């Protein structure tokens, strides 16, 4: 069977990738960036665009805009940018009405600034904040100034040693602030003393690595709020991060000591501080447990930023579980600060909700759902004087959509879609559906299903079961360039994405239930999923099924190998998976292991041993592709090598694909193309779609 599909790995990886759009104060224009990659020229290109909200048309700025980033409005038509230099960065100002004009330089910095935010604090004055690495003495750090050492040795006396994909150094992220003032001749100038390090002289670090960014802090008319790990605890063993407040008047004064906002029994991760428009209130999120990264975030508010002792929790309950069983993500204040708009996962979608900004008023009813499909990735006010919102969303068929939301009418109007709602790829909503099946207990499990675009119900298609990572995560109606179900559907499979025990978006109890039960309920849920498909989906050929997973999904593939479900798959793919839970302490974020295995290795060794896939290697028999990145410090490459060694020694058809320059994810375009060709070539061979097999050529192998 030959499948002619428009949506190929090359098409996906070379398609434009858009950032979120940021509107100006009048809500008429919005800034965003677009990056593309050409497999012909082997080059990446990035452009800055200005979107006309009313017409949906965009104007391109700086055709080769790779040197520019962080477009941020400072007036109705002017915006600042960060320009990358050979040895530092420059802050420049551009005019949205002059696409051909070169931006004007404001200041050069001896370091790399990013994550720009601004706030108007006067008629011609704008407060500005950004992040940049700082030396232990509090100065901006520039690696170009480092002297080449005579030895490569590193010595550590505390955790972290390495984090995600880099070894930790003494230089830490810091937030810097200043004031921009517009002169008589229209030129913007950074006021003395320039950028001030708000964290100098403290042990605090923000944005918090490895994924911290602009959402880790906010700038208001009366100061800064930011998230940092608690300096009294070790961040490798604990998740506790606090919100701190720095009061400022002119944004040119020396920073006073940051003030911690205390939250009582809530001692876990803090996230997303957001000032109200008047700068007098602060909303943020906080988890309860300080060794659990996937705990439920609680929505919090400080009603008066001058009184940090008054911190209120939304939907607080006597049992401490919280009255709203969803996980708030993005948070935005309404124009008059009377309401909050919050995104949250729900049954495989990320939807937008509204609620009063007062916890007392909000307690009267749960948040009101506004959107109903796809996944909201970002939400912002559409100008200072508008009740409407601009959202950036995606779905399984559309990589990027800008839409206007009218909260009063709960209406969503599309402004711009990067792929014409999937039509550019030959994809449509009709390919996506849902199934619910019985879990391993008194609960139902949800799965998303994606069929080929040329689906014929009279035919049978091999099953591709995709197992998500996390494990506290979920498959959603959302876009990905790493694991995109449409790639498998267009190759001729029915892709099924189950969200078993441990998944998010189905209540915190289901998320929590995977702890100390990694190969228990989740595995049985997947068995039930396979049986449901075999009995109820006539168009799916489970005799030609393949199973694939990454991270925890890779762990589950290795677990499946040693258990009966493994014999029902023709082939398996394990990307950066755990071979042995006894090796889990080779990771970097130890709090994750401590929580999910119920303690340290010496306190609860039995649980580590119980759920160890390597215990069952005598049963491994299904052909398996192993993929691993050598820069993956969460799951060191020895996990992939060990699994491959076992398969080879047992005579099981197997293949090892490794990337010396990739971490837990495969991010580089050429590497990703190889990944897709290897994966599709492997599963197509064993599922019988041999005509679609396209194992990458020219890759060194034995």
Short description:
This protein is mainly beta and 702 residues long.
Characteristics of this structure?
702 residues; mainly beta; Rossmann fold; 3 domains; 5-stranded antiparallel beta sheet; 10 helices; 34% strand
Topology of this structure?
Blueprint: H1 9-14, E1 17-18, E2 22-23, E3 29-38, E4 43-52, E5 58-61, E6 68-73, E7 78-85, E8 88-95, E9 104-109, E10 114-122, E11 125-134, E12 162-163, E13 166-167, E14 172-182, E15 188-190, E16 196-197, E17 217-220, E18 223-229, E19 241-247, E20 259-261, E21 270-275, E22 282-286, E23 298-302, E24 312-313, E25 328-333, E26 339-346, E27 349-356, H2 359-362, E28 368-369, E29 375-381, E30 389-394, E31 401-406, E32 411-417, E33 432-438, E34 444-450, E35 461-467, H3 485-490, E36 494-499, H4 508-512, H5 521-536, E37 540-550, H6 552-561, E38 571-575, H7 590-596, H8 605-610, E39 624-629, H9 638-649, E40 654-659, H10 669-687
Parallel strand pairs: 35-36, 35-37, 37-38, 38-39, 39-40
Antiparallel strand pairs: 1-3, 2-3, 3-4, 4-5, 6-7, 7-8, 8-9, 10-11, 11-14, 12-13, 14-15, 14-16, 17-18, 18-19, 19-20, 21-22, 22-23, 23-24, 25-26, 26-27, 27-28, 29-30, 30-31, 31-32, 33-34, 34-36
């Amino acid at each position: 069977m030959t499948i002619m599909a428009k949506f190929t790995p090359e098409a996906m990886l070379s398609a434009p990738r858009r950032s979120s759009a940021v509107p100006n104060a009048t809500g008429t224009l919005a800034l965003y960036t677009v990056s593309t990659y050409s497999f012909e020229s082997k080059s990446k290109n990035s452009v800055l665009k200005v979107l006309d909200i009313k017409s949906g048309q965009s104007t391109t700025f700086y055709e080769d805009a790779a040197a520019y980033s962080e477009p941020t409005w400072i007036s109705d038509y002017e915006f600042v940018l960060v320009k990358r230099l050979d040895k530092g960065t420059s802050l420049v100002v551009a005019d949205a009405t002059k696409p051909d004009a070169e931006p004007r330089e404001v200041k050069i910095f001896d370091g790399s600034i990013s994550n720009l935010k601004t706030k108007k604090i006067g008629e011609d004055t704008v407060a500005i904040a950004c992040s940049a690495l700082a030396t232990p003495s509090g100065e901006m750090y520039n690696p170009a100034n480092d002297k080449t050492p005579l030895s490569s040795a590193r010595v550590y006396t505390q955790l972290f040693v390495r984090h995600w994909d880099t070894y930790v150094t003494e230089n830490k992220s810091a937030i810097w602030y200043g004031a921009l003032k517009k002169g008589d001749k229209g030129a913007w100038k950074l006021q003395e003393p320039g950028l001030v390090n708000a964290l100098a002289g403290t042990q605090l670090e923000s944005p918090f690595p490895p994924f911290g960014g602009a959402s880790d802090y906010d700038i208001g008319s009366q100061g800064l709020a930011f998230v940092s790990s608690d300096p009294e605890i070790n961040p490798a063993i604990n998740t506790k991060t606090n919100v701190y407040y720095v009061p400022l008047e002119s944004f040119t004064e020396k920073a006073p000591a940051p003030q911690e906002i205390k939250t009582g029994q809530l001692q876990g991760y803090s996230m997303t501080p957001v000032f109200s428009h008047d700068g007098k209130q602060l909303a943020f999120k906080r988890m309860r447990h300080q060794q659990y990264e996937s705990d439920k975030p609680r929505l919090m508010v400080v009603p008066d930023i001058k009184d940090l002792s008054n911190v209120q929790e939304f939907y607080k309950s006597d049992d401490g579980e919280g009255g709203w069983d969803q996980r708030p993500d993005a948070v935005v204040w309404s124009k008059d600060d009377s309401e909050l708009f919050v995104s949250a996962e729900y049954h495989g979608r990320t939807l937008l909700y509204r609620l009063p900004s007062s916890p007392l008023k909000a307690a009267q009813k749960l948040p009101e759902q506004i959107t109903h499909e796809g996944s909201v990735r970002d939400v912002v006010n559409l100008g200072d004087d508008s009740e409407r919102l601009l959202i950036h969303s995606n779905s399984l068929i559309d990589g990027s959509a800008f839409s206007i939301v009218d909260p009063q009418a709960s209406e969503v109007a599309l402004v711009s879609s990067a792929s014409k709602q999937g039509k550019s790829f030959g994809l449509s909503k009709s390919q996506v559906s849902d199934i619910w099946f019985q879990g391993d207990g008194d609960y139902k499990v949800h799965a998303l299903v994606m069929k080929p675009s040329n689906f014929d119900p009279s035919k049978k298609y091999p099953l591709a079961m995709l197992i998500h990572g996390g494990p506290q995560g979920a498959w959603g109606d959302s876009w990905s360039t790493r694991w995109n179900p449409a790639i498998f559907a267009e190759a001729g499979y029915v892709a099924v994405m189950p969200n078993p025990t441990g998944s998010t978006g189905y209540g915190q109890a289901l998320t929590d239930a995977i702890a100390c039960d990694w190969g228990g309920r989740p595995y049985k849920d997947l068995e039930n999923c396979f049986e449901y498909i075999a009995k109820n989906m006539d168009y799916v050929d489970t005799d030609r099924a393949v199973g694939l997973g990454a991270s925890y999904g890779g762990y589950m593939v290795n677990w499946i190998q040693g258990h009966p479900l493994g014999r029902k798959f023709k082939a398996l793919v394990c990307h950066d998976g755990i071979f042995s839970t006894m090796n889990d302490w080779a990771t970097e974020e130890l709090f994750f292991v401590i929580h999910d295995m119920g303690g340290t290795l010496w306190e609860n060794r039995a649980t580590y041993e119980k759920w160890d896939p390597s215990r069952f290697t005598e049963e491994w028999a299904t052909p398996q592709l192993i993929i691993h990145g050598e820069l993956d410090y969460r799951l060191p490459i020895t996990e992939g090598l060990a699994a491959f060694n076992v398969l080879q020694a047992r005579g099981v058809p197997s293949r090892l694909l490794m990337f010396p320059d990739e971490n837990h994810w495969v991010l580089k375009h050429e590497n990703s193309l190889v990944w897709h060709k290897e994966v599709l070539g492997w599963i197509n061979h064993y599922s019988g779609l041999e005509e679609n097999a396209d194992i990458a050529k020219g890759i060194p192998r034995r």
